[in-house]
Amino acid sequence: MNQRIFLSPPHMGGNELTYIHEAFESNYIAPLGHNVDAFEAQIKAYTGAKYALAVTSGTAAIHLALRVLGIKEGDEVMASTFTFIGSVVPILYERCTPFFIDSDTASWNLDPNLLEEELSQRASQGKKQPKALIVTHLYGQCADIKRLSAICEHYGVYLIEDAAESLGAGFEGKQTGTFGKMGIYSFNGNKIITTSGGGMLVSDDETLIAHARHLSTQARDNAPHYEHTEYGYNYRMSNIIAGIGRGQMEVLSERIERRREIFDLYHKALCEIEGISFMPELEGSIGNRWLTTLLLPQHISPESLRLTLEAENIESRPLWKPMHAQPLFQGAQGRLNGLSDTLFKRGICLPSGSSLTDNDVERIVSLVKQAIERN
Ligand SMILES: Cc1ncc(COP(=O)(O)O)c(C=O)c1O
After folding, report:
1. Does 314 lie in the same domain as 267?
2. In angstroms, rounded to a whole number, what is the distance separating the alpha carbons of residues 151 and 154?
3. Co-location of 208 and 311 in the same domain
4. Which residues form a coiled coil (predicted)?
5. Catalytic residues, which ones?
6. Per residue in 282-305, pLDDT tens?
7. Ligand 1 in contact with 56 (CB < 6 A)?
8. How much of the chain exceeds pLDDT 70, in percent?
9. pLDDT of 162 over the 80 cut
10. What are 204-248's pLDDT values in tens digits?
11. Could you tell me the residue range of the domain that residue 331 belongs to?
């Protein structure tokens, strides 16, 4: 059996262990220390965000964003329907009401027209507006973030950017995660860089990040004993994990370059096939191409291709099942146009890890071609 090809495996740079050793040498085997500070500083320098907070996961970062923005039980939060559960489950943690917005064909991400229609209709009818919008930059590709940001500003809605998958992607030279009031990144094991698990909350608002920092360490007040006036969480990133993050940040640009090359290889080999289309890159943006994703011709189902690849020990995956179609969100409201349902039915993610060789890609391409011809 050939060695397994994973969808997006971790790809270490080389210096991660050095920084882990530093943590051991300093004995900061704790959720604080030099690696945590240095990793936050690297993220700020790279993204241009003024403040950053390293936490245990991207989901935790979104949860903290909702808390510090004062979003409370009963409030409504709008979100991309075409996303991963981690993006929206904090809405449930806070007992808020989700409202899902569908995608557009130009980006496969949240459709600004649908958002504007919904908010302007509510305004003209004197209805309540949502407190926040969580926008995902899916698969490392930018949403129409400048327009979404302007719409949110116009209607007084907080914009939270879920850049879990899109670290390094930018729109007109500005990094995803830095357009909104708050942004988040994930360093889960499958992301473009990883710390095994981890996340980062960023903002240009010092007070918000200071509050999130307080909440992430059990909301302990300033006293020699343990004093608490509000409840928090145990969400702070470990100094060991942050050591991995430091090493990974050193190779982030190379990782993006390779992912984009892998996309180009797939695209060149498959784009001529009738019925195939790749996730677009919105004009003015540069994605990190975290995963290469494409729609298949009508006559072949993503599941049959997935099984064909699996038989060769190659991992692939359907596109995210939209949130409005999840049993968990049955009955949730939304403004939908059917696109995310189609993307889910017809789309597949191909192996895209930065350690993939050109030969691996060629092998996968020929299996895809054979499967399409056979069906
Ligand atoms: C779009 C999106 N949002 C949120 C998350 C949550 O991040 P984490 O797994 O670090 O909690 C992920 C990834 O896992 C994601 O892909």
Report:
1. yes
2. 5
3. no
4. none
5. 191
6. 999 999 999 999 999 999 999 999
7. no
8. 100
9. yes
10. 999 999 999 999 999 999 999 999 999 999 999 999 999 999 999
11. 252-374
Domain shared by 222 and 256, yes or no: no
Matching residue, tokens 């060769």? 312
**Separation between Cα atoms, residue 111 and residue 139, nearest integer Å:** 16
CA of 85 relative to ligand 1 center, distance in Å: 8
Q: 166 in a domain, yes or no?
A: yes
CA dist., res. 220 & res. 115, Å (int): 39
Model confidence at 350, pLDDT cuts 50, 70, 90, reads: very high
Domain shared by 269 and 201, yes or no = no
Residue 321 CA, ligand 1 centroid: distance in Å: 14
pLDDT value of residue 1: 74
Tell me, using a 6 A CB cutoff, whether residue 186 lines ligand 1: yes
Note the residue count of the chain. Answer: 375
**In this model, does residue 252 exceed pLDDT 90?**
yes
Pairwise CA distance, residues 195 & 180, whole Å: 24
Is 2's pLDDT higher than 90?
A: no
Distance 138 CA to ligand 1 centre (A): 10
- What's the pLDDT at 374? 86
Give the mean pLDDT of 80-107: 98
Ligand 1 centroid to 113 CA: how many Å?
25
Q: Which of 184, 219, 249 is the last residue of a domain?
A: 249
If you ran DSSP here, which 8-state letter would residue 326 be given?
Answer: S
Q: Which of 88, 93, 141, 186 to mutate to test the pocket of ligand 1 (most atoms within 8 A of CB)?
A: 186
119-128: pLDDT as tens digits: 999 999 999 9
Of 84, 138, 194, 200, the one to substitute when testing ligand 1's pocket (max ligand atoms within 8 A of C-beta) is 84
240 lies in some domain: yes
Share the mean pLDDT of the chain. Answer: 97
Dist. CA 374–CA 307, nearest whole Å: 14
Task: Name, in order, each residue with C-beta under 8 angstroms of 47's C-beta and a sequence gap of 6 or more.
Answer: 167, 175, 177, 178, 183, 202
| Final residue belonging to a domain, choices 227, 249, 271 | 249
Q: In this structure, is residue 31 part of a structural domain?
A: yes
Position in ligand 1 atom list of the atom nearest CA 59: 11
CA angle (252 as vertex; 249, 255 as ends), nearest 5: 150
Number of domains observed in the structure of the chain: 2
